[in-house]
Design a protein that fits this description.
The protein has 3 helices and 9 strands. With 161 residues, the protein is an alpha+beta fold. One of its GO terms (cellular component) is catalytic step 2 spliceosome.
């Protein structure tokens, strides 16, 4: 499954690893004919619409998913933080790794980040649930933009594939 992030820098398409990160990416059967998951359910409910990339560090990562824009907010569909889903084979070993942001073990909510480079020190600390598969030029452009209170980078998520 893939999702397209529509940013002011261009579109970024990400592949989601729903098969190995079910709670982050795919579970919660709730009396409907399809399965919801935290990330896709938040996308479907337009939770991320108008969010900003509130943290952007060259050669490290760009972070979003907090509707307050402060980096301190966010919710999950699970009624609170949910547990990490570490897969030892998944590593922060390439540009474009998609991971949940957290404030410590088992504190995932709605914030996530995309890496700009290898970040092996993040392995088994942040749940990897996808990777960029298209829109590398937009990711390159994002990396050059300084984020501050006067200039924000907005985005919306759409086009589930």
């Amino acid at each position: 499954m893939s999702v397209t992030l529509h940013t002011t820098a261009g579109d970024i398409k990400v592949e989601l690893f729903c098969d190995v990160c079910p709670k982050t990416c795919e579970v919660c059967n709730i009396n409907i004919l399809f399965e919801l998951n935290n990330f896709l359910a938040l996308c479907a409910n337009e939770y991320y619409k108008g969010n900003i990339f509130h943290r952007n560090i060259k050669d490290f990562m760009v972070q979003t998913g907090d509707p307050t824009g402060t980096g301190k907010g966010g919710d999950s569909i699970w009624g609170g933080p949910f547990e990490d889903e570490f897969v030892p084979e998944l590593k922060h070993d390439a540009r474009g790794t998609l991971s949940m942001a957290n404030s410590g073990p088992n504190s995932n909510k709605s914030q996530f980040f995309i890496s700009y480079a290898k970040q092996p020190h993040l392995d088994l600390k942040y749940t990897i649930f996808g990777r960029v598969i298209d829109g590398w030029d937009a990711l390159d452009e994002l990396e050059t933009i300084k984020v501050d209170s006067k200039r924000v980078i907005e985005f919306d998520i759409a086009d589930k594939h």
